[in-house]
Amino acid sequence: MKNQDFTTTVVTGATAQEVFNAVNNVRGWWSENIDGGTDKLNSEFSYHYQDVHICKIKITEMVPDKKVTWHVTDNYFKFTKDKSEWKDTDIIFEIAEKDGQTQLTFTHRGLVPAYECYKICHDAWTHYIQGSLKELITTGKGKPTPEDEAARPETPMPEDDTTKQATPKSIYHRLLIEAPAETVYEALTTQKGLQGWWTPETIAKPEPGSIARFAFGASYFKEMKIEELKPYSKVKWLCLRAQEEWIGTTLSFELEPHAKGTVLLFHHDGWKAFTPEFASCSYAWALFFRSLKLLCETGRGLPYPDFDK
């Protein structure tokens, strides 16, 4: 019978020792939200992602430059029916040198398709192993989940009666994207990601305070100030240049993990009135979010000018 455990392999030009050291630098590639030792046999550490995923792990095997095994002693998922999925599973890193290169084989033994969390965990582990851990090995810098800040207040939802003329006015959209929050966040913050779903004529940096420029044809563009970046949870822009009704509005993208991926809550705040441009903009955002969803789920979006096809 075919082994159904999740597994993925990374091959690099680094030495086995370099790969081994990177694996044990868990805060350098997985998450900064880890308490306890991660580089000694029989050490125990805990991991959390907001209040969505919490687990306890014990290092049960450590063979220098060859193998590391973790055993999950306890686990909590907020978004699954069985909150303890992952408990009593093993996370294994096997290292082998061959033909001048080093192969790292990652296996999460017990993480199988029957688990409700399998798809989101499959995609998240792929992000961290093939992306963050590989970058830590090859460049010395990974992309772990940053340390949690203080809990942010929930964003108030608009009143149900959207015909009321209270100020300011807001556009809201909410959708499920079947990809991990890390993938969606990258699509919302990097130049490559934004080019893939909004417009190819994008110049942007994932840096608070920077100015992003989005062109739509030869004669029209928008400029946004990056007001806030909270990795894997929130992105906020302030519109500086665009059509007059856009200027001074704010655009917020809030991400919440879900068993099937990520829920995106978008709100475009600060409109002065319910105008034809407001209505057209709301429809256009819906089309562009279809493009974002396609990009995150399939690797190919429908950015301008193809977003309405």
Summary tags:
alpha+beta; single chain; 14 strands; Alpha-D-Glucose-1,6-Bisphosphate, Chain A, domain 4; seven-stranded antiparallel sheet; 309 residues
Describe the structure.
Helices cover 24% and strands 36% of the residues. It is α+β, with helices and mostly antiparallel strands and 309 residues long. The strands form two sheets. Strands 1-7-6-5-4-3-2 form a seven-stranded antiparallel β-sheet, with helices on one face. Helix 4 (181-189) crosses helix 5 (191-197). The termini are far apart. The model is unreliable at 151-166 (pLDDT under 50).
SSE string, helices as H and strands as E: EHHEEEEEEHEHHEEEEEEH
End-to-end CA span: 44 Å
Number of helices: 6
- Major sheet details: 7 strands, antiparallel
Structural class, from helix and strand content?
Answer: alpha+beta
Task: Describe, in short, the structure shown.
The chain is built from six helices and 14 strands. With 309 residues, it is α+β, with helices and mostly antiparallel strands.
Q: In terms of topology, how is this protein built?
A:
Blueprint: E1 6-12, H1 16-24, H2 26-29, E2 34-36, E3 44-49, E4 53-63, E5 67-77, E6 90-98, E7 101-109, H3 118-139, E8 169-177, H4 181-189, H5 191-197, E9 202-203, E10 211-215, E11 221-230, E12 234-241, E13 250-258, E14 261-271, H6 276-298
Antiparallel strand pairs: 1-7, 2-3, 3-4, 4-5, 5-6, 6-7, 8-14, 9-10, 10-11, 11-12, 12-13, 13-14
